[in-house]
Amino acid sequence: MLPPRLATPLLYVQLFEVISHLQDDPAVMMYCIRQQFETSPNGTQTRLGTIVSLTNVTHTIELIPEYSERVNHNVTSTTSLELYNTFYLNSFSDKEWYHSLHTDFC
Hints:
Helix content: 10-25%
Strand order of the largest sheet: 2-3-8-7
Strand content: 25-35%
């Protein structure tokens, strides 16, 4: 049994903003999103995130880095969030997610 202070499982979530919509690129048909940053007075940037209750999460998402003309071959699933700031939100990962993105938010 968990102690009371750990009774609600928590999750750290990085924040993103939508920068283009499905209809903006008909060949891709995916939202394009960018990580949100906060700039300190000395100019350093920190990724924005928040803590949410795990019970508030309804779906995980799959992000595809927006590669430039040259792909960084050192990228792994562990490092992609650190090496790229712009991603495609994969709406084709499963049918429920596809339906949600293509009907609820369009």
